[in-house]
Amino acid sequence: MTVQVVGQRTGMVKPELLGLSPDRLFVVVSRLVALLLIVVTMSILSPYFLTWSNLINVVRHAAPLFLLSAGLTLVVLTAGIDLSVGAVLGLSACLAASLITGGHPALGILAALGAGLACGLVNGTLVAYASVPPFIATYGMLWIANGLAYIFMQGEVIYGLPSEFRVIGAGFIGPIPVPVLIMIATLIALHVLAHKTPIGRGIYAIGGNPVAARLSGMPVQRRLVFVYAMSGLMASFAALVVIARTNAADVSLGEEQLLPAIAAVCLGGTSLFGGVGGVAGTAVGAIILALILNGMNLLGIGTFWQSGALGFIILVSVFTDQIVGGRIGRMSGVTQ
Amino acid sequence: MSLTGSHPQLVKRSRALQLLAELPGAAYLLFLMSVLLSFATPEFFSVANLTNVALQVAVLAIVSFGMTLVILTEGIDLSLGPVLGLCGVVMGLLVVAGWPLAIAVGAALLIGAAFGTMNGILVAYVEMPPFIVTLGAFGIAMSFAMVLTEGNSVTGLPEFVRLFNEGVFLGIPVPIWATAVCFAVTYILLYHTKFGRYTFAIGGNRQALILSGSPARFYQVLVYAYAGALAAVGSFIMTARMNAAHPTIGVGLEFDAIAAVILGGTSFEKGRGGITGTVIGALAVGVLRNGLNLMGVSTEWQVAVVGIVIILAVSLDSLRGLNQ
Predict the structure, then answer these.
(1) What confidence tens digit (pLDDT) does each residue in A156-193 have?
(2) With helix as H, strand as E and coil as C, how does B143-155 read?
(3) DSSP label at residue B5
(4) What pLDDT does A1 receive?
(5) How far is CA B53 from the centre of its chain?
(6) What percentage of residues in chain B have a pLDDT greater than 70?
(7) What would the mean pLDDT of B176-187 be, rounded to a whole number?
(8) How confident is the model over B81-135, as pLDDT tens digits?
(9) Which one, of B21, B50, B65, B20, lies nearest residue B276 by Cα?
(10) Which of A51, B79, B131, B133 has the fewest CB atoms within 10 Å around its CB?
């Protein structure tokens, strides 16, 4: 039902506020309220929360999380999913860390980005040309990338990256952390890509109305390969920032990244049915998520709760968008 | 689902070829692996090893039966692995605390079914995508198992728990009995009840069923609940085999189960497939893993190989679908 609803949305006259239909407005407002509630609650509960050094810490975590989930957002906009982003991040991180500490920084960066791109291209080809359901193709890729990372590392932990490389994860330009600058630059680039280019319009069209996209003569399959390749590439980009921050890499790095990435996209209000949302929302989602995880840390809530909290966040944000957002949309006549 | 147009190819095929083409991929894989292994490792066809394979396959097969039903409804349940881990932990903790086995088993079954019911309600009534719902449940189940055990394994289980794995009844080990019973129950449910007819019908016709006022959503919830309960059954054997309940033991099992179901010829589209193919699929995955073990392939490579096999199987399946 919802799939059709999304498809119909574009062609209808709808009441708007700030250029948003009421159900989208609900998504935006609910996220801003959530953000505000978290900040207020946390600053009451923990005096350390609103200190400069803690907020720097939060954005340093939010930046690579955003890079990872921004690529995923493009995939989700086409009504697909990429479950392999975490594992690809892990594999790229291991490759990069190993080569960089081995004295080949340029090669390490290229190998990481190349591995990410390759995984993404395989995912995209399987989805676009072999019609494999996205969650299966990318779930298989999750285990392949995990396996390759294990084989490559043999249980080893690599640490002690050179300080010139660590700038991208832990450095500052003036008072501003470098990862934040990377996040802003990436956000602008991807936002322009998604909204001002034929490729971007294609991405939204494939997710919003696949039949029309195909009938209009758009190269749907090439666009799909492109978004999955971007997702893989962004995951390996995120890997570089992560290892630069943590100064270490091991195989378990990737295992803890999938749930946060998907939670950031869901929190960012991008519809899992495709065609609605965008990378700007994901940036907000990544910041909210980094605040929540930081808050849990400060309150001494153990890491065992973390995956549960992430699962809960995913379910609650998709649930509210579906139930409340859908109801508001129906009441205001946007959708039937 | 497919974004590419299908091009019907008018190729005439003989009867025999047609029949061969309709066999699930698992049958080919099983045959290929058996031939390969009997040459590569003489111990493959020993009674000891084949019994070992059957015991290893038992848990996978039981979980795969539930996964088959879920996939027949065009869904997926990524949470079955961690739910299995959680059920094992719950059963283990209760038994160690001195509760009777019946209560411990009942509680674990209830937890499994509860997770399934939650998944089912969110998928059927709220219309959230199955993989997102069950990924959320994945995180929650894993968290619960970790919190309950503080990340450690539950050990010191009483002797009788081991009967789930080592017990022998009428000359046949208990895990194989359990698999047979689960198969029989699932088979009857699937082919001789309203529940089964709805399971097949929901895949492909869900919207029509709901619009015509039939209780499709209700049966969809039951499918997920049943899959969760079967994961709990699997957890008893798994816990007995390990002689401990590890909170993360199930993680990755859902992946093998998906592989078994797909290799067994069940398709993600339009309710095509069935439970019998899944048995062959589970055997194929089990033999694949066993063979890789015998050939001295490390666990890490096994993970990657199974990933490649599942992707190849699904690609071939959907390409075959496109050509028809």
Answers:
(1) 888 888 888 888 878 888 888 888 889 999 999 999 99
(2) HHHHHHHCCCCEC
(3) P
(4) 39
(5) 16
(6) 90
(7) 90
(8) 999 999 999 998 898 888 888 888 999 999 999 999 999 999 988 888 898 899 8
(9) B65
(10) A51
Rounded to 5°, angle at Cα B6 from B5 and B12: 160
Separation between Cα atoms, residue B181 and residue A51, nearest integer Å: 61
Q: Residue B322 is nearest to which of A131, A308, A309, comparing CB atoms?
A: A131
Contact B311 A136 (CB under 8 A): yes
| B307/A contact by beta carbon, under 8 A | yes
Number of helices and strands (H, E) in chain A?
Answer: 16, 4
How many interchain CB pairs under 8 A, A with B? 157
CA–CA min distance A178, chain B (Å): 31
* Cβ pair A221:B136 closer than 8 A: no
> Which of A147, A318, A322 is closest, CB to CB, to B307?
A147
Q: Which tokens belong to A316?
A: 């609650």
Which of B147, B298, B301 comes nearest A304 by C-beta?
Answer: B147
SS (H, E, C) B243-298: CCECCCCCCCHHHHHHHHHHHCCCCCCCCCCCHHHHHHHHHHHHHHHHHHHHCCCC
**pLDDT tens-digit series, residues B29-84:** 777 777 777 777 777 777 777 777 888 889 999 999 999 999 998 889 999 999 99
Whether residue B315 lies within 8 A of chain A, CB to CB, comes out as yes
Q: Which residues partner with A172 through β-bridges?
A: A177
CA distance B97 to chain A (A): 22
Distance separating alpha carbons of residues A112 and A93, to the nearest angstrom:
7
Which range (A211-220, B242-251, B263-272) has the least confidence? B263-272
- Residue B20 half-sphere exposure, CB side, CA atoms within 13 Å? 7
Terminal-to-terminal C-alpha distance of chain A: 10
Q: Where are the domains of chain A?
A: 64-255
- A16 pLDDT tier (thresholds 50, 70, 90): low
Confidence of residue A287 (pLDDT cuts 50, 70, 90): very high
- DSSP count for chain B of H helices, then E strands: 13, 2
Average pLDDT over residues B282-310: 80
CB within 8 Å: B3 and A137: no
Q: Cβ(B253)–Cβ(B274) under 8 Å?
A: no
